[in-house]
């Protein structure tokens, strides 16, 4: 029974990988994949578990929420570093707006980006096992903006497997 469940998990993981990573037999990423890494926005990510909030100061002035797939959430809960392959984190970013109902509060305004980090140490060995994607209105941003992802993570959070977000209590 355990072996059968392991087989089902392996097949499910492969199916998820095929859906999330661009890896057509031709090696050409789909049009909606991020440049450099070929990461796409994962299906169903809005139903993933909440990891933590974040707030960016001006000039970005954004509210952000980080979601994780089951593999990432389990790693966070156990304090597992480095994150295991198959971990996926999605950051939703919104312009911060003043609440019209309650003056001291701010609320999410317009969506600015969806950012995705995918852990696959075999596919992304040159970026410490992580692939990155930044999307505006569902479309990937240009390669120059993706080049900044890795350098910022390497420069600031290498001791936390290159991940900024901590699990919110």
Automatic annotation (TrEMBL):
Q: Which InterPro entries does the entry mention?
A: Cytochrome_P460 (IPR032033), Cytochrome_P460_sp (IPR038142)
Keywords, sorted A to Z: Signal
What CDD domains does UniProt report for this protein, alphabetically? cyt_P460_Mc-like
Provide the species name.
Answer: Rhizobium lentis
Which protein is depicted?
Cytochrome P460 domain-containing protein
Instruction: Kindly indicate where the leader peptide sits in this chain.
Output: 1-18
Locate the Cytochrome P460 domain: which residues?
42-165
